[in-house]
User: What shape does this take?
Amino acid sequence: MTTVRMPVRVRLEVTADRVDDELVWTVTDAVDAALGRAVDRALTVRAVREAPAGPPVTAAISFSGDPLPDQLAGALERSLLTSIDLAAARLTRSTPVAGDEEVRSGAGEARDDDRVVFGEAGDAYRVPYYDRHADPVDVRLHGLPQDSGSAERRPPPQRLRRFKDFREIGAAVLRRTGGVPPEQIAVIGAPATGDAAFVAFVEFDGGQVRVDALPLAVWDFPGGNRRAELANVNFVSADRWSFYGQASGEAQVRDLLVEAMMLDLLRESPGVDQADLKRQALQRIKRLPARTSDTLYLYQLTSGGEPVWIGEADPKFPRGPLDVLVLTEDDPDEPEDKYGNCPPLDAEEPFTWLSMLGLLHDAPSTPDTPFLGEPAIELWPPTISARLSRKVAQVASMLHLSPGPYVGGFLIGAMAHIDRNCRILTSNRAPMSPQLRNMAAAFGLIKELEREYVTIMLSQDDRRALPCPVAGQSETWVLRFAEVLGSARDDAVASMFVTQCQDVLLQVLFASGHELSNRANNFASYMSLTRMLLTVMLADVPDLMTLREALIGELRRERAIAMASTSVGGPLAAGWVRMTGSLIDSMVEEPVSREPEAGTVKPFKGGPRVYDGKGRWWTLAELDAVISTQRQQVTSIDPVLDKVSEVDDLVRKLKAAQVLDAYASTAAGHALTTAVDDIFRDLLTDLIQENDRWQRKAATDRKYAFGLANFTRSDERADSDIGAKLTGIHKIADEQLRPAFTDPEAYLNGMRRLAAVEIGKAELSEILNLVGLTVLAIFCAPLAFAVGVIQAAEGLHTAFEHRDLQRAMLNADEILSKAQVEAEMWAAVINAALTVLPELPALARGARTAGRALVKGEATELAAAATRQAMRDIAKRLAEMSLEHFTMRFTKELTQAYLINLALSKAMNRIADAVAYQVSVTGEASVGDALDVLDRAIQGPSTGGTQ
Assistant: This one.
C-alpha cells in the first residue's frame, strides 16, 4: 500500500481579546481552506485520484501552549474533526464532490430552515451526530468548496417568523409537530410588525390551546454616564426554557443580578477571571434603573446547556424546563443597518475641558463626566474591560489618585491631577524632586494605556461594537481626545518644570540657611578660622589693591588728557596738564636712592606699569588676574566671604592687629579684631534674616524661581531638542527632571510648548513696549514718559530683588551669580537714567507746580485737570493728523526707537561683561567704578597680557 503524506500547516496570530466563540470559526475556516488546497493538489495525481476507498480516517486533536477554556477547546476540537472527516471523504471519493451529476438515493434529506444557524463568522446546519448520542453538531454550510453557481442559489437571509396572533402560533406548532404536539412547548417568534422577538408558551389541553407570550429584551448600556435601557431582541437561537432563580431583599436581589450578569459576560468572553467578571458585573448593575420591587424572578433560554438569554419575568410564566421551538422564515427585506445612527459628537465639549486646564488656573480640574460620551470601563467586553481596569489601577496607584470609570476622562484628569499636585508640594521643607520623579515615571504607562485605548476604540468601531454616541464616530473621537490629552499633558510637564525650578531654588536656600545658622551658632570657632583664612590666603591683596589703585589713577589721568584734547581748546588744555605735571614732578626732592618707591607708575611700550617695591613692574591685567584668582580661592573655601564688600580693608585691619599684638598694644590689636568680628556677626545676622525671607517668598510664589532665567531661541547650529537655549535655573531643572520621564517624547513636547509660549510672550512684550511707547510719544509725550518711568522702576525693583536673593544664597552662581546681579543692576540704572534724564527740566517744573498745588490743597483737582487736558491734547492731535502724516511720523519714531534699542542692546552686553570683570577683581562694581567699567565696555574684552 502506498502512503501519501500531505503536510498542512496553518498559522494564525490571534490577539487576547479574540479568544471567544469567534475563534472556533476563525481557526476552522483556516483549516478548511488549507485542507481544501491540499486535497485539490493531491487529486491532480492520477494514482491518488483513482485509488479505491481506504479505511476511515482516524484523527486526534491536541493543544499546546497557553490553555484554552474547556468549553472553547471542546467546540474547537469538534469543529476540526468534522473538517478533517469532510476533507478525507473528498480525497477517498466516498462522498460526492463538486461536479458529480447525481446524488445517491437516500443520501440526503429535505432542508429544514429551522436547523440553519446564522452567525457573523458564517452559517451552519445542525445535524444529529451518530457518535454523540444524537446531539446536534453545527456543520458549516460553506465548509466544502462551492461551484460557480452556488452563490446564486444561496437561500435568502432568515428572520424570526412573524405572527399576527396567538392562533397562528398554535397552528404553526401543530404543523411542525405533525399534528402530535407536546403538552407544553415554548416558541420563539416575532410580532407582525416591529423589530422584536418574543417567547410564547403554548399549552395543548385536549382540544384547547392556550398561549401566553413574553417579550424578549436585554439591557442595553449606552456610552457616557447614562443608565441602562431595555432593548428589543430580534433573534434568539435556543432549545430550552427554564427558571433561573429568585431572590428577595436588596442584598439577595443584588447577588442574583450579579450572578446572572457574570454568566452573560462569561458567554461573551470565556476564560475571564472570576474576580474581573464580578467587578464588571457589580459596576453594570449600578447602571440599572431603580427597582420598584424587592423580589426578583429570573428565567433563562439555553442552547446546548449554555445560557443565551437571562431576563426578568412575572412568576405566572411556566418555570419549565420546556423544549423551545425557534420558527424562522425567509427575510425578503434588506435589513436596515442601524449601527452608527447616533447624534454628532458635541463640538463644544473639548473646549470645556481645555478651559479648565493650564497654568493660568489656580486649581486645574476636569469635568466629572466621560469624554465625549465614551463607554465606561465596565461596558467593554470582559477581556478588554479587565485589561483596561488593571492598567487604570496601575496609573492611579503611581499617581496616588482614585481610578476613574472612563479611561479617556481618567487620563485627562490624571494630567490635571499632576498639574494640581505640583502646586501644593511646598507644604514642608522636604525635597520635591522625589515626588516629581514618581510623577514622571507614570508617563510611560500613561502613553501605553492611551495607545491601547485608542486602538481598542477604533477596532471595536470596525467590529460595529460601540454604543452611541461614539458608534461610527471613533475617528472623530480619537482626534479630539488626542488634542485635549496632548494639551493637558503639555500643561502637566510645564507645571512639573516650574515646580522643579522652585525646588532647586528652595533647596539651595534651605542649605544656605543651614550653613549660615551653623556659622552663627559656632561664631567663635568660625571667626578664628576666617581670620586665619583672610590673613594667610589674602595677605597680599591689600598691597596689590594699593598698586592697582595707583595704576588706575594714572590711567584715569591719561583718559582725562585724551578727553581734553578732543574738546574745545583741547591742545592748549592737554599741554597745560602735561606742563603742570612735569612742574610738580620737578619740585619733588630727588630721593637719595635711585630705586623707585612702591606704587611708582611709569609708561612702558605696552602701557603704564606700577612698581611693587620688590623688583617687579605690574600691568593692570596682571594685577587683576592675581587678585581675582586669590579671591576665587578664598570664596571657594568659604562662600560667605563673597558677601563681604571690602575684603582688603578687613585684611589690613587683621594684619595691623597682628602687628599690634606682637610689638605694641595688645588691647589695640584686640579692638581691631573685635571690630572685624562685629562686621561678620552683623553680616551673618543680615544674611540669615534675608535667607528666611526668601525661603518664605520662594515657597509662596512657585513661579518666582522659574522667572530667574529666560528661554532664548536656539541657534540653528546648536543641538537643542526643545528649540530653545536653557540657562541658569532652567538648565539645572532640566538636568534633574528630564531623566525621570519614562516617556521622553511627552517631556520634549511639553518643554517645546512651554519654551515657545515664553519666547512668544517675551517677544510680544518687547514689540508692544517699542510700538506702544512710540504711539504714545506721538499722541501724548507726558503719558509715554510716565509709562517709561514705570517700566524703569519695575526694572530697578527686579534688579534689587535679584541682588538680595543672591546675597541670601551660598554657592549658587549657577542660579544667580554676583556678577550677573551687578550687571543687571547696572542695566536697570542705565535704563532708568536714559528714561529720566531728558525730562529732568520738565520734571522740575512739574514738581514746582505740584508743590504749589499741595500748599494750596489743590492736588486732587490739579491731577484731574491735568488728565482732562491730556485727553483733549490727544483728541486734538488725532483730529489734526492725517493718515499719511501719522504713518510717516510713526515710521520715523519707530525706526529711531528700534535703532536706539539695537545700539543699547549691544552696549548693554559689553557693559555686563565689564561689570562681571570688575566684580571678579574687586568684589563689587560701585558707582565709583563707573568710568573704569564704561572704559572697559568701550574697549571690549582684552586680548593681550597687558593693559
Q: What stands out?
A: The two ends are 111 Å apart (CA to CA).
